[in-house]
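Table S2 (text version). Query chain:
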Amino acid sequence: MSRKERENMIRYIEMVRGLEKQEFVHMTDQDIEHIYETTYLRHENE
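Corresponding C-alpha cell output:
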C-alpha cells in the first residue's frame, strides 16, 4: 500500500468512525485495510 492510500484510508476511518489519528500509529497496513473494509461495508449498507 502506498503512503497516500494509507493516509486516505485513515482519513475516511476518522471521519466515519470518529477515531483519532494517534490510534493508527502502531497499526500495520493490513490492520488499517481490514478496518477500512469493514467500515466501508457497514457505511454502504446503511
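Notes on Table S2: The first helix runs from residue 3 to 17. The helical segments are 3-17, 29-45.
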